[in-house]
Write a structure and sequence with these properties.
Layout lengths: L1 E2 L16 E8 L2 E10 L4 E5 L6 H13 L2 H4 L5 E5 L10 H11 L4 E6 L15 E7 L2 E6 L2 H8 L5 H6 L18 H5 L7 E6 L3
Parallel strand pairs: 5-6
Antiparallel strand pairs: 1-3, 2-3, 3-4, 6-9, 7-8, 7-9
Length: 204
């Protein structure tokens, strides 16, 4: 939930696949979301407060509100960082969320972290905008997707998400004699674990 602030003009409305409209309501000093749905056949209207909305819907609304808030659209906020935006979201909606992140990057820089392969499971995902975090000798290494994986994605053999599921995403090693092996952390990773990915959208 978001701390209540003086009303501001909405940057763009949220939309639903049925007749409804989202509305901000105050709850315990915080601003949250409520949905009003209409039934044209019965000419009835129903309101669903935060206690009747799934956690995934509330979180998705919060992510969209952060991405498309007026202060980000007009440049007053230069950077938005989101940690695991896909949390509690249905995997099938991950692609729509990535589209929203990409669209928002047209007017504000967006940085997000994720451990979800579903979010990166898009053929059109920009591999140059992704940074991979891995472990090497107890140190965190962050870098571009390693060269071999970049070529695989560009050749459309696998998506970033598929490589992530298979444990094949590693950061490109830094140049020089001190460069760490991009694959060394693969042998030490516990079974089923995946590297973290950071998606940086800088189209602004």
């Amino acid at each position: 939930m978001i701390k209540a602030r003086p009303p501001q003009p909405a940057a763009r409305p949220l939309t639903c696949n049925f007749p409804c409209s989202p509305n901000g309501i105050s709850a315990g000093g915080y601003m949250t979301v409520a949905f009003r749905a209409s039934n044209s056949a019965q000419k009835a209207r129903s309101e669903f407060g935060p206690d009747a909305i799934s956690d995934g819907t509330i979180r998705a609304a919060a992510v969209l509100a952060a991405l498309f808030q007026p202060a980000a659209a007009d440049g007053r906020i230069p950077l938005i960082g989101i940690d695991n935006p896909e949390t509690t979201l249905h995997p099938a909606a991950a692609g729509v969320l990535l589209d929203a992140l990409t669209e928002a990057s047209e007017h504000v820089q967006v940085i997000m972290t994720t451990t979800s392969a579903d979010l990166l499971d898009r053929e059109e995902a920009d591999v140059s905008a992704v940074r991979v975090a891995g472990m090497d000798d107890g140190l965190t290494v962050i870098g571009e997707v390693d060269r071999a994986s970049r070529q695989i994605v560009r050749d459309r053999l696998y998506t970033l998400g598929e490589l992530m599921r298979g444990g094949q995403l590693s950061p490109e090693p830094a140049p020089g004699p001190q460069a760490a092996s991009p694959r060394r952390d693969q042998t030490a990773r516990r079974p089923g674990a995946s590297p973290a990915a950071s998606l940086t959208c800088t189209d602004r």
